[in-house]
User: Fold these one by one.
Assistant:
Number 1:
Amino acid sequence: MAKHLLSAIAVKNAAEGDLNDGEGLVLRVKSTGASWVLRYTAASGRRRELGLGAADRASIEAAGTSLKRARKKAGDARDLLDKGTDPIDARRAHREAERSKAEEAKGAKKAAATTVLRYARAYHEKHVEPVRSDKHGKQWIASIEQHVPKALLDSPIDTITAVDLLDAMVPVLRKLPETGSRVYQRLSTIFDAAVIDALRPDNPATPIRRELRKRAGRRERGSFAAMPYRQIPDFVEKLRKVEGNSARCLEFTILTAARTSEALTAEWCEFDLDTRTWTIPGAKMKCREQHVVYLSDRLLQILKAQEGQHVRFVFPSPREAPMSNMAMMMLLRRHATGATTHGFRASFSTWANELGIARPDVIEAALSHNEQDRVRKAYNRADFLRERAALLQAWADYIDGKPSNVIAGDFRPQLVAA
């Protein structure tokens, strides 16, 4: 097949239309400009045209240079065809590779500029603040800022390895098990989000879970200092002689088996005294799901005695805001109990399980522990309403020194001595 049919002069002076240089190379001239095109037949038998760029016809010299360049590009394309590669497909693949490379470089640059702390704050602002109370939202980010080593917080988020995170978290869990566990969970959530945002390929918190527990020492359930349940009736009897909201809130917390923060921030709008229920919003709950507490006779007495103190909070502080958890802690210290407020949840659980007061599922539901088995969670959708109500009444009766009913599924009570 003839080739190199065109000259620099022919290229410069070409009129509108297609001029053939041979072997499929064509000069295409339009009113809007001129360009080089290679016509070829792909291995599939399909006729295709590969654009080789604009033709420069500003001068004879420029036209000659443009012609040589077009012949070189056409030759390279023919070499690909000889190897069984379609030059148009090859060009597209090259462009896609370059685009991916540029995106990776852009992502790496962005990740390098995004430290763990900066990303944690951005995540907190976008995902935590909108769904949590102001107090809990501030605690969420403060726990990370205060307990994660500064060197890790100031590192680019894409550089953190599993070993880095393990070394940073072990001392925290050894010193503050509960706080360390929360910080670890929050960092894991943050790194998950970073993976989704393409700031890093994996979550370094995932592979260290078991090793973290091993090195820090496994924290047994109920590790908060708990008062033996047999001592609680005497303690509550003394507590009822103490005036003030701290004492009433502490007794309320014990009787409901609620978490400290849930009791401290209890609001009147959450209670329905007619149906004897306290509905805690999901935003206040550890598991982020709404939880219903069934009110015993003594709880109703406490609530009615608290009416009129504050329009919003059941246990207000002198500043007309929720009390600090220090109020109840100081009360426990003055009585030299050695227990913590949260520990009373463990006392309740031990009492109910050791004496067989209710089925384990009912006890766990009363403590608002997440049901891990999704099938059972769906099956237990009714949340054992009557059994849970009876369980908290039995707890209140036990504390009052009365016989406690065993809460059987068929509700046939059996008396257990206090």
Number 2:
Amino acid sequence: MNATNSGSAPAPGLTYLNLFIFYSRDESRGADGDVVGTISNSVIYDLNTFYWATRKPILAGARFATSATVALANNSLTTETNGAVSGGGGYADSYIQPVILGWEKPRVRIKAVYAFLAPHGPIHRRSAH
């Protein structure tokens, strides 16, 4: 989510970004690549990011910004031999960037960020075991 224009500071004001990711598979493969069993496995991530940035520079020409990404996740795993193995859903870890400083020149853009991952602990899981 941060790779394209990674040196650019967010636009002034409030910005909302949503990234929805869905992974699914229906077979399990061994080390040699052969199918060793059928499964039902799906993972869903819904990432919601909020950015806020100043319009005017504050420090040596840098604009200040801040962002928070709140994630929701859901996971389900069932195999033909073991039945329901695991699953669950809820809040996933949040990624917080309380300080973003961005310098923009005609041909160069630089961004310095202080960030941390805020773990929410394990999401609620259900298990057949």
